[in-house]
Amino acid sequence: MLSNYDKLIFEVSEVGRTGYRLPELDVECNIEEVIASEYLTKEELNFPEVSEFDVVRHYTNLSSKNYSLDQGIYPLGSCTMKYNPRINEDMAALNGFRNIHPMEDIEDVQGALRLMYELQKSLAEVAGMDHITLQPAAGAHGEYTGVSLIRAYHEKNGDTKRDKIIVPDSAHGTNPATAAMAGYKIVEIKSDKEGMVDLDALQAAVGDDTAGLMLTNPNTVGMSDKNIKDIVRIVHEAGGLCYYDGANLNAIMGHARPGDMGFDCVHYNLHKTMSTPHGGGGPGSGPVGCKEFLHEFLPVPVVSKKDDGTYFLDYDKKYTLGKVKDFYGHFAICVRAYTYILTMGRDGLKKASEVAVLNANYLQAILKEYYKLPLDRICKHEFVLAGLKGVMSEVNTLDIAKRILDKGFHAPTVYFPLIINEAIMIEPTETESKASLDAFANALIEIAKEAEEDPSILNEAPHNTPVSRPDETKAAKDTILVYVEPEK
């Protein structure tokens, strides 16, 4: 029998219970003068009737069922799920930031504008760019903005025949989707046996129809491409531009910069690299940086500084894309990112990437004794396994991921990148301690031994979660988004 706190909030409801009482209306008001009649209903609203205590217990119980970084490691490859320092939250909650409004007079929000201006400068320095827009709302939105800069550049030059974007086969799925949304055709480039861009294939693909290349370095298999300068040169010689996907920037902060590699524009994931909330804890933020020759296409406004030291919203971009988001981006996320950068400092950001790489290599060295490692060499911030050694005919990667849940950990990214069969992609980040890494590694070692001794343990996992193995295809296609009271 289910307890009250394993039920839906509607199932806890009892007629007559009240969690909150509004004061009696003490002014005369004709509701139809305030709200148009077509938006009003005469029907009784089907809200659950619960006490305040019921509500508190219900949602506290729900929150405890959700795994989070506050509970343990979140080793999603390609996602940089790292700890969000509480000082970031404290700064975003300051009254002058929390209660600010984007329509306030410029003279009254100089502190906020200064923060945005200095964040732009810091991000430009981190990636070797000249100009920044903070408008994009998340990583994929940043990609779209960056690719739109490339499109605007070619259109201004009358080079409209350039209708193709080159994307490696190891790219994040958002890259080809973004390029397609921006109106481009996609040209996929195969990786070589080392997981790098195949230079011969790239040379054969470029031409006078090449608008640009979308690439991240280190790449999705966790390796820095040793040919990055040649890759950029080949694209530039063909007249295309190079876009850097900043999803893996956490691996190189303070050590290498996309601008120095030759990239023309880049997006940052503040909700990854700069430790701001990620996913359901968002919203995200995907600022875009560019080189000087692209700045005239940036979305407006950007925050600029006058000679007298005051800040203003600069709309003076001759060939601007216009706005890509209302107002100026997700300001509270910018506050968190700026706090992180100030807290860490130049040396701290550099140290963060060093430890992220160290942690990944530590886990890789332990786990390769039990799991297949298709690219057995020093990695950067993440690495990709290819299932268990010896028993993959009976146990697949999904079985392993489901069994990890029984061990009390969130599963890593699985079946991505697509170029590695039975992929298990792990990124521990720099915020995990050696004890945390050891606990996670030991769980994966236990799973490897269970697979040898009794594969059915994995085949039937998870065993101790509220839901075992739902039909994920059915759940995606046949969603139930509203509560329907069961027939009595």
TrEMBL record:
GO terms for cellular component: cytosol; glycine cleavage complex. Residues 160-279 form the Aminotransferase class V domain. One of its GO terms (molecular function) is glycine dehydrogenase (decarboxylating) activity. The modification N6-(pyridoxal phosphate)lysine is found at residue 272. It is an enzyme of class 1 (oxidoreductase). InterPro entries: Aminotrans_V_dom (IPR000192), GcvPB (IPR023012), GDC-P_C (IPR049316), GDC_P (IPR020581), PyrdxlP-dep_Trfase (IPR015424), PyrdxlP-dep_Trfase_major (IPR015421), PyrdxlP-dep_Trfase_small (IPR015422). It catalyses: N(6)-[(R)-lipoyl]-L-lysyl-[glycine-cleavage complex H protein] + glycine + H(+) = N(6)-[(R)-S(8)-aminomethyldihydrolipoyl]-L-lysyl-[glycine-cleavage complex H protein] + CO2. It comes from the Bacteria. GO terms for biological process: glycine decarboxylation via glycine cleavage system. Its EC number is 1.4.4.2. Its cofactor is pyridoxal 5'-phosphate. Keywords: Oxidoreductase, Pyridoxal phosphate. CDD domains: GDC-P. Residues 352-453 form the Glycine dehydrogenase C-terminal domain. The glycine cleavage system is composed of four proteins: P, T, L and H. In this organism, the P 'protein' is a heterodimer of two subunits. The glycine cleavage system catalyzes the degradation of glycine. The P protein binds the alpha-amino group of glycine through its pyridoxal phosphate cofactor; CO(2) is released and the remaining methylamine moiety is then transferred to the lipoamide cofactor of the H protein. PANTHER family: GLYCINE DEHYDROGENASE (DECARBOXYLATING), MITOCHONDRIAL (PTHR11773:SF1), GLYCINE DEHYDROGENASE, DECARBOXYLATING (PTHR11773). Belongs to the GcvP family. C-terminal subunit subfamily. This is Probable glycine dehydrogenase (decarboxylating) subunit 2. It comes from Citroniella saccharovorans. The lineage of its organism: Bacteria, Bacillati, Bacillota, Tissierellia, Tissierellales.
